[in-house]
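Revision sheet: structure tokens.
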Amino acid sequence: MKTYAYVRVSSTDQHEDRQLHAMQELNIPQSNIYIDKQSGKDFDRPNYQKLIRRLKSGDLLYVQCIKRLGRNYAEIENEWRKLTKEKGVDVVVLNMPILDTRQHRDLLGTFIADIVLKILSFCAHNERDDIRRNQAEGIKAAKARGVTFGRPVKKPPANFGEVVRRWERGEILTKEAVSLTGLTESTFYRRYREYKATLKS
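Predicted:
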């Protein structure tokens, strides 16, 4: 049996020191500690995939907490079954002792682990819904206060009409018209369409 650890932080500016310290206290060889600095939205992470290829039946895998394994609990359930059932690996979640497959290897232990994972999945789903709802309410309240979102609209300059007339007569090229208005080419055409629509109305 070999012992491994998986450590994950969500981005390169986050530090994995606390997780590493916990694994080193378990005397896990440094070469058996796999680290990813990547989102946990799925399991398509380079070092996690290397770890999976290396794990054999009877090996032991430690993670600090279930969120370090991943954040998509539907996928975590599938991954948990792949590790424990298909590969025959024991998994220990340090901050949740009930998720320790070395304990209660019988049907009851499997049942308890399944329930815990489903509860975590439910909580994570509700948390995501709450975040989205709070964001939507925050945006709605901000708009009511007059806050605008996205890039500020760049208005055409005072000389826009004159530049357009010269451009339409062929006196200047598009590149020069764009330069004279201080707009990008795509914005120039957008403002031109708006300008023509205003003249027709």
